[in-house]
Structure prediction request, 427 residues.
Amino acid sequence: MKPCLFIVALCTFLPSLPAHGWSEPHLAITRAAVAVLPQWQRDFLGAEAVRLGDDYCLIPDHVFTDKENAKFAAMESKPGEVYLTGLHLPAQQPENLETLRYFMSRAVAAVSERKAGDAARYMGTVCHMLEDFGSPAHTVPGDNMFTLLQQFLPASEGMKDQLMHGPIESGEISVDIKGWQPALLGVTVEEAAWRLLHRVHEGIINARGTTIPIIQALYADDREAVVRHQLRAATLDAKIVADAFHTILCLGMRKFDAGGRKALDTVPIGSFWPLEAENLCFPQKQFFSSPYWGHPRSGVMLERGKKAVPIVLRVEQQPGVIVEKTFADGISAGMGRPLTYLLPAGVFRRFTVFGGLHPRLGAKGRVEFTVTGDGRTLATAVVAGNEPAHSFDCDVSAVARLQLALTPRGLDSKSNYAAWAAPLLVK
Ligand SMILES: [Zn+2]
Prediction:
């Protein structure tokens, strides 16, 4: 305990290095995450746990000045790229997944070789990426300095000549996630990186909800409100970082508790973002026109494109017994716009889902439901509005991209209220 306190004391007197991204908040978020790790994990890291929160979480920002540690933020597949943009700004899902997978695997390898210093440095790179992606200042794709957003939100007199990136995310915040129990994200790096990617999506969406309130608070010179909204982003980021750290250390030590493992056996994917939602929103080119003009919805169906109603399908409870069932997890979508999901290699064996039409809204419709894996049809079924939903059970053990597609097979296209209900990946 004493050496750690000494290092903390020493570091408070060191001049802070210039940093981009969350900057000071990087330290606060990382320290909060480290603080909730189980004792055996903090014991493994030892004094490196302190350096992780004081220093290593900024490695990707310091690659030009901290030459010694720059290699911990470099990828073998990108030789010569010293500053990896993908560690600071979200790219598309496949690239984000590969970056997470790469740095997690390096961190896990270092843990398994019992090299705490190397492990903590790679963990610093992983957490920097998670924290930057979940930063309120990294939320508008292609507009990292908010020159476009400021045209929508004209600045106050006091702020009008400033670049907004720094003020939106900087400042002294203290983050505390006491009581958070870090979750195991996988028992292999493939699985863990894939689950982490979906956790990161939650972080990005959460951070997006803080950006405009922070800008408005900055214009109003309301410091308390700035911090309050920054904390909403930073708190979730710290939980995601804690999950990532916890998982890396479990994987490296091959130490998993049975409960954590069991929770990973199935994954509902109805709330996951498909690849078509580039930047986690649906571009207009992905909109469908039948049964209404719009985009897919998670957890609800949209009556006439306006009114959200629960996903209800007729299902065959037992042979000959058909009941109407409401599903909390599901995706309602239109015709002709497939939805594609990345799957981690060698993790899941099966994909199960119900495909059917809403009993009332879709009574006169008829739709073909098709599940494909890497372009190959895994299963297909035509379901009419007066029939029960089809229950799919597909082998996805060798599938990298799972696709769900809907094709109209009836006369009344306005009645094709179709949903994929309870979509579940099973180990
Ligand atoms: Zn950064």
Summary: The two ends are 41 Å apart (CA to CA).
